[in-house]
Amino acid sequence: MNKPRRKYKDYDESLLNIAVGLVENKNITSYDAEKQFGIPRRTILNKVKQKHTKKVGCPTKLPPADEQKIVSCLVLCGEYGYPVTSFELRSIVHDYLIKNGLSNIFNIKMPGQKWVRNFLKRHKNVLTVRSTNNIKESRASKSVKDYNTYFENLKISLHNVKPDHIVNYDETNFSDNPGSQKCIFKAGTKYPNKTLNNTKTAISVMFSATAGGEIFPPYVVYKADNLWTNWCANGPEGTRYNKTKSGWFDSYTFEDWFNTIIIPWAVKTTDPKVLIGDNLSSHMNINIITKCEEHNIRFIFMPPNSTHHTQPLDVAFFGPLKREGGEF
């Protein structure tokens, strides 16, 4: 008759180290340690004899250095006022793996929920998950108190930061589709139509400027599969061009804007610098967070559903620009 297999409790690295220390110092035998800690005797003896020195459990998918970068990214996002969700974490990791040639780790897919749970468990001393209350559409509008709180916090965050080191950025979308317009026709015209040469093309532009008055070159993103040379001609000096399928900024185009427009400005000084803009998940990735740490840059995200009041470029620039462009 076969002897029933002994069942062992779950244990972590710290518990194993205690058991190994007691056996090494001959405080208890390996048999006693097995019974007391629920750890296989052979595992304890292997550690005592410096065999199988790897960490307990299944090896992690990502190297420790990469996991630490992800942890730092999540911590800083929380400090910026933009804690990420589980889905956004998976998206950030997926983006990081693709850019670093590691997409085969998860078979070119996003990490699963199980990986997220294990990742948070491994870093529970630094990271935690908290529930947030869903805001109904009827409560989406901001109160005076909400605005006052934001501006009080903004005042604290900008303390001792020079105006030339504060940047406001905003993305806006333009279209060559005029929509419905009022036009003058001959009285009695049954089907008033206006023939225009337009393709309903969407074009996004990122504008940015410092509080000291310096305006950075715009960054233009076309809705297209190819970027044609004649699309990149005759723009303002220093303008950069790119393309996406949607015509909106994604993590790749935002990172390129950050590297080509913001970093050349940021490297001129080691003083604290602040970027103020929308809290869009597509704007954040590990590479940007790492460079923020290197160049003493801090993001400040405006409250959701408030940019029509709190976004300086939206209120003072884009609004008048679009009204002027849409006038009859």
UniProtKB/TrEMBL annotation:
Recorded superkingdom: Eukaryota
Cell location: Nucleus
Gene Ontology CC: nucleus
Pfam families in alphabetical order: DDE_1
DDE-1 domain residues: 202-324
A GO term for molecular function: DNA binding
Gene3D superfamilies on file: Ribonuclease H-like superfamily/Ribonuclease H
Descriptive protein name: DDE-1 domain-containing protein
Native source species: Parnassius mnemosyne (clouded apollo)
